[in-house]
Amino acid sequence: VQLLESGGGLVQPGGSLRLSCVASGFILSHSDMNWVRQGPGKGFEWVAYIARSGSTDYAASVKGRFTVSRDNTANTLYLEMHALKTEDTARYYCATPRIRGSKSSDRSDYAFWGQGTQVTVSS
Questions:
Q1: Residues contacting 55, CB < 8 A, separation 6+
Q2: Helix runs in the chain, H state only
Q3: Residue 64 region by backbone torsions, left for phi larger than 0, else alpha for psi between -120 and 50, else beta
Q4: Which residues, 6 or more positions from 108, have their beta carbon under 8 angstroms from its beta carbon?
Q5: Which one, of 22, 4, 8, lies nearest residue 117 by Cα?
Q6: What percent of the chain has pLDDT over 70?
Q7: Confidence of residue 8 (pLDDT cuts 50, 70, 90)
Q8: Mean of the pLDDT values across residues 44-51?
Q9: Can you tell me the distance from the alpha carbon of 36 to that of 107, in angstroms, rounded to the nearest whole number?
Q10: Looking at residue 81, what DSSP letter applies?
Q11: Can you tell me the distance from the alpha carbon of 84 to that of 52, in angstroms, rounded to the nearest whole number?
Q12: 20: Cβ–Cβ under 8 A, 6 or more apart, which residues?
């Protein structure tokens, strides 16, 4: 199993980015998936969730600004981020939860992680 995130970068407050997570070794649509992040000097924070069914859920801090989706043909997970704030600065990871439906901020609750992609929101 491999997860490879990309799409991060430096963006001004109010800007947008789209993160991608290409999965290999398993079928993405057969697994619940999460986006989590770790900001500078902060712990891991759950951000977004997409179930095998396609239903989604978001942390209160990003609800209405972030959208999680997947392309089953490309076996790729996405995170569309709009109206970015300085507090969104973090390394973003896609991850597979150990327990179906889990939306945890505890790293040990995830079975597989990518290397992450850095998002920096700054003027």
A1: none
A2: none
A3: left
A4: none
A5: 8
A6: 100
A7: very high
A8: 96
A9: 9
A10: E
A11: 27
A12: 5, 6, 7, 76, 77, 78
For residue 66, what pLDDT is reported? 98
The rounded distance, in Å, linking the Cα atoms of 111 and 75 is 18
DSSP, res 123: -
- Structure token digits, residue 67: 């959208």
Q: Which residue has the tokens 């150990």?
A: 98
Query: Rounded to an integer, what distance in angstroms lies between the CA atom of residue 29 and that of residue 15?
Result: 29
**Model pLDDT for residues 60-117, shown as the tens digit of each residue:** 999 999 999 999 999 999 999 999 999 999 999 999 999 988 999 998 999 999 999 9
The pLDDT-based confidence of 33 (bands split at 50, 70, 90) is very high
Asked whether 19 and 92 are in contact (CB, 8 A), the reply is yes
